C-alpha cells in the first residue's frame, strides 16, 4: 500500500511561506526601478516563471531518459507531469512577458528580442506533446514515443536558444549574465526569493499531480479487484499516463 | 552497412516504380512559387526575401515527403520484417535519412532552376556554388529531423497532422540558419559568399540532431 502525498504538507507550507515572503519583498522592500517604475515589479514573477518552465522541460527530458533506460512506467508519469506543469508555467511566463513588453517597450510582442522568440518556439514545440500522446492508443507505445519526443525536445531547448540569440540583436534586459548581474543587492535578493518561491510552487504542484494520478490508478485497481472489470468503467482515451 | 544500402535501394526502387513522392514534392514546390508570386505581388525577388521563399518552400516540400517516408513500412508490414532481420536498427534510420536526402537533392535539381526562372531577380548562375553549400547542409537537417519526426508520427492516429506540428518548431533553427546564410547569396548587388557563421551553426545543428536521432531511434522500433 502506498501512502499518497507523503511530505506534501511540509512542502505546501514552505511554498506558501516563501511566496508570501517573496511578494512582501517585491512590494515593500525592492526599490522602484529608475526607468520603468512600478511595472518593473512583474519581472519578479515573469522571469522565475520562464526559468522554471524551461528547467521543467529539460527535467521532463531527463526523466524520459530514465524511462527509456529502465522501462519503468513511473518515470513516464513523472516526465509527463514535469512537462505538463512546465507548459502551464510557460503560458504564465508568456502572458506576463507580454504585459511587461507592452508596458516597457510599447508593444505586446517584440520580434527583435531573441529570448522572447526562442521561448515561443520552445512552447510551440512542447504544445505538441499532448496531441502526440493523445493520438497514440496503445499505452505502452504512448509512453515510449512520448519519452522519445521529450528527450528530443529537451535537447532542443538550449540549441534553439543559441540559434535564435545569434540571429537577432539584444533588446531583452540582460539582468542575469555570466559576467555578473547588474542587479543591485536588494533587487537581487528579492529575485532570488521569488525564483525559489516559484520553483517550490512547481515542485509542490508536481507532487500533487503525481499523488492524484497515483491515487486514481490505485482506485481503479481496487475497484476492479473488488467489483470486477465492469465496475472500473471504460478507460477514456487520455493523453495522461494511466 | 549492407542493411542500410539494402533498405535504401529498396526505397529508391519503390520510388522509381511508383513515382509517388518525388513528383508530388516537385509539383508542390512549383505551385508554392506561384502562390508566393501572387501572395507577395512581386514578379522578382532578391536578398533575404528570395532566401526566405526558397527555404520555406523546400521546408514544406520536405515535410510533405517525410510524411510518406515510412508509409510502405507501416502498411505492408515492413517494420515487422525489419525487426525480424538480424541487423542494427540504426541502419533503418540511416537508410531513410539517406533516401530523404536524395529526394531533396533531386527536388532541388528541378526546383532551384525553376525558382531562378520564375521568381529570382538576380541571375542564378554565379550564385549556384554558394547556394549549393547552404542547401547541402540544410538538406541534411531536413533529412535527419524529417526522418525522426516521421518515425515518431507514423504510429499515431493523426499522423498527417502530428508530423508537421512537431517538425516545424524542430526545424526552425535550421530554417533561421539557412535563410540567413542564403540571403547574401541572393543579394541584388552582386552575390556574396554565405556567411561562415551560419554555415557553421547549420552544420552543428546537423551533427547534434544526427546524434540525438541515433540515440533515440531504437526506441521507436521496439514492439
Describe it:
- The complex is a heterodimer of chains A (242) and B (223).
- In chain A, 74% of the residues lie in helices and 0% in strands.
- Chain A has 242 residues and is an all-alpha fold.
- In chain A, α2 packs antiparallel against α3, α2 packs across α7 and α3 packs parallel to α6.
- About 2% of the residues of chain A have low confidence.
- Chain B has 223 residues and is mostly helical.
- Chain B has one domain.
- Helix content of chain B is 76%, strand content 0%.
- Chain B contains 9 helices and no strands.
- The interface between A and B is medium-sized, with 29 and 32 residues.
Short structural summary:
The complex is a heterodimer of chains A (242) and B (223). Chain A has helices at residues 8-29, 43-70, 73-105, 114-126, 129-134, 139-167, 185-227, 229-232.
Using brief descriptors, characterize the structure shown.
A: 242 residues, mainly alpha, Four Helix Bundle (Hemerythrin (Met), subunit A), 8 helices, 74% helix, globular, B: 76% helix, 0% strand
Amino acid at each position: 500500500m502506498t501512502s499518497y502525498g507523503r511530505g506534501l504538507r511540509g512542502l505546501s507550507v514552505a511554498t506558501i511561506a516563501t511566496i508570501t515572503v517573496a511578494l512582501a519583498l517585491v512590494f515593500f522592500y525592492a526599490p522602484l526601478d529608475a526607468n520603468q517604475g512600478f511595472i518593473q515589479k512583474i519581472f519578479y514573477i515573469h522571469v522565475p516563471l520562464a526559468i522554471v518552465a524551461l528547467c521543467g522541460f529539460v527535467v521532463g527530458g531527463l526523466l524520459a531518459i530514465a524511462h527509456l533506460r529502465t522501462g519503468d512506467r513511473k518515470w513516464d508519469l513523472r516526465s509527463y507531469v514535469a512537462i505538463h506543469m512546465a507548459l502551464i508555467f510557460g503560458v504564465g511566463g508568456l502572458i506576463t512577458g507580454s504585459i511587461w513588453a507592452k508596458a516597457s517597450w510599447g508593444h505586446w510582442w517584440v520580434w527583435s528580442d531573441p529570448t522572447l522568440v526562442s521561448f515561443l518556439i520552445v512552447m510551440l514545440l512542447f504544445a505538441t506533446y499532448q496531441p502526440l500522446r493523445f493520438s497514440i492508443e496503445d499505452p505502452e507505445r504512448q509512453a515510449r514515443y512520448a519519452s522519445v519526443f521529450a528527450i528530443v525536445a529537451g535537447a532542443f531547448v538550449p540549441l534553439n536558444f543559441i540559434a535564435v540569440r545569434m540571429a537577432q540583436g539584444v533588446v531583452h534586459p540582460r539582468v542575469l549574465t555570466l559576467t555578473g548581474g547588474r542587479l543591485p543587492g536588494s533587487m537581487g535578493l528579492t529575485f532570488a526569493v521569488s525564483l525559489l518561491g516559484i520553483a517550490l510552487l512547481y515542485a509542490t504542484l508536481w507532487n500533487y499531480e503525481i499523488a492524484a494520478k497515483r491515487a486514481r490508478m490505485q482506485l481503479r485497481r481496487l475497484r476492479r479487484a473488488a467489483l470486477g472489470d465492469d465496475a472500473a468503467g471504460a478507460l477514456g482515451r487520455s493523453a495522461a499516463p494511466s | 552497412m549492407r542493411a542500410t544500402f539494402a533498405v535504401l535501394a529498396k526505397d529508391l526502387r519503390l520510388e522509381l516504380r511508383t513515382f509517388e513522392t518525388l513528383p508530388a514534392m516537385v509539383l508542390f514546390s512549383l505551385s508554392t512559387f506561384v502562390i508566393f508570386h501572387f501572395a507577395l505581388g512581386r514578379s522578382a525577388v532578391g536578398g533575404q526575401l528570395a532566401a526566405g521563399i526558397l527555404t520555406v518552400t523546400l521546408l514544406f516540400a520536405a515535410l510533405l515527403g517525410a510524411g510518406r517516408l515510412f508509409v510502405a513500412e507501416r502498411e505492408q508490414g515492413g517494420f515487422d520484417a525489419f525487426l525480424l532481420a538480424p541487423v542494427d536498427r540504426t541502419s533503418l534510420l540511416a537508410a531513410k535519412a539517406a533516401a530523404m536526402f536524395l529526394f531533396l537533392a533531386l527536388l532541388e535539381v528541378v526546383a532551384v532552376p525553376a525558382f531562378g526562372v520564375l521568381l529570382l531577380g538576380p541571375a542564378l548562375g554565379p550564385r549556384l556554388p554558394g547556394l549549393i553549400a547552404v542547401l547541402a547542409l540544410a538538406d541534411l537537417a531536413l533529412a535527419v529531423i524529417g526522418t525522426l519526426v516521421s518515425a515518431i508520427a507514423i504510429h499515431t492516429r493523426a499522423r498527417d497532422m502530428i508530423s508537421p506540428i512537431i517538425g516545424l518548431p524542430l526545424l526552425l533553427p535550421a530554417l533561421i540558419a539557412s535563410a540567413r546564410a542564403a540571403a547574401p547569396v541572393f543579394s541584388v548587388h552582386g552575390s556574396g559568399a554565405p556567411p561562415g557563421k551560419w554555415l557553421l551553426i547549420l552544420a552543428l545543428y546537423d551533427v547534434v540532431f544526427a546524434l540525438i536521432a541515433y540515440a533515440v531511434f531504437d526506441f521507436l522500433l521496439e514492439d
